[in-house]
Design brief:
By secondary structure, this protein is of the alpha+beta class. It contains 4 helices and 10 strands; from the N terminus they run αββββββββββααα. The longest helix is centred in the N-terminal third of the chain and has 38 residues. The termini are far apart.
Length: 239
């Protein structure tokens, strides 16, 4: 009788352990199925906006660029020449930015990186701007630059540094930053950005040169300026 009870107990225990193991496997399987969904996310935006189309027939753009048939790809699709050459500086701010991104180096599509060359005249600057889709890392090839960026509200903390030839500085994604040539001669810098199409929002151009223009009274209050000064600035930045 005792032997029979012991066998029954062992049998029940084995069933319980088997069910427990099965339950563990079921949970593990569910986790394996759902984990990719849990860690998935939308792709980073590669353009300013991408309004959804009602039908595929209305679709013109994708979030980035269409892909070329791999059989038709050549080495030239991954090549951009002449970035060692100085660019003329004719802009009012005293700098010229030469971008190498997915628009002129097609092989960058989906690779999440791009490059710029910046030429600065004496006293020139790359004025306060932001890249909505990229972190930027900059290296000075020639000259002396004062660089900096400002953190977001409410601190608005300014980080600045004087850079010399060979120095490197990084600007976090989305933060307003600038470079100014404080040396006695022209300056040159190269910067890499963590997007195939980082975008650029130059603060003054965007605020005072929008099309159509922002109501001057709004900007006058925002910047605590006389509306006549705002109108004068809008005229200067008008395209």
């Amino acid at each position: 009788s005792n032997s029979r009870k012991q066998k029954t107990f062992l049998s029940s225990k084995n069933i319980y352990m088997a069910m427990k193991s099965l339950s563990f496997l079921v949970v593990l399987s569910l986790l394996a199925i759902t984990l990719p969904l849990a860690i998935a996310s939308d792709p980073s935006p590669l353009q300013d906006f991408c309004v959804s189309a009602n039908t595929s027939a209305d679709g013109v753009f994708v979030n980035g660029k269409f892909c070329k048939d791999p059989k038709l790809v050549t080495a030239d699709d991954f090549f951009f020449p002449g970035l060692q050459n100085a660019r003329p500086v004719t802009s009012p701010v005293g700098s010229t930015v030469t971008a190498v991104n997915v628009n002129n180096l097609l092989g960058l599509n989906t690779l999440g990186i791009s490059l710029v060359r910046i030429d600065y005249a004496v006293n020139g600057q790359n004025p306060p701007h932001t890249h909505p889709r990229a972190t930027e890392i900059l290296v000075v090839q020639q000259g002396t630059l004062l660089v900096g960026f400002v953190t977001s509200n409410p601190d608005n903390r300014l980080f600045t540094k004087v850079l010399y030839e060979g120095d490197v500085f990084v600007f976090p994604e989305g933060l307003i930053h600038f470079q100014a040539n404080i040396g006695k001669g022209p300056a040159v810098a190269f910067a890499a950005l963590s997007s195939q199409n980082p975008g650029v929002i130059t603060i003054a151009n965007t605020v005072f040169g929008s099309n159509p223009a922002i109501n001057p009274s709004i900007l006058a209050r925002a910047f605590q300026l006389d509306p006549r000064i705002v109108v004068d600035l809008q005229n200067k930045f008008k395209k």
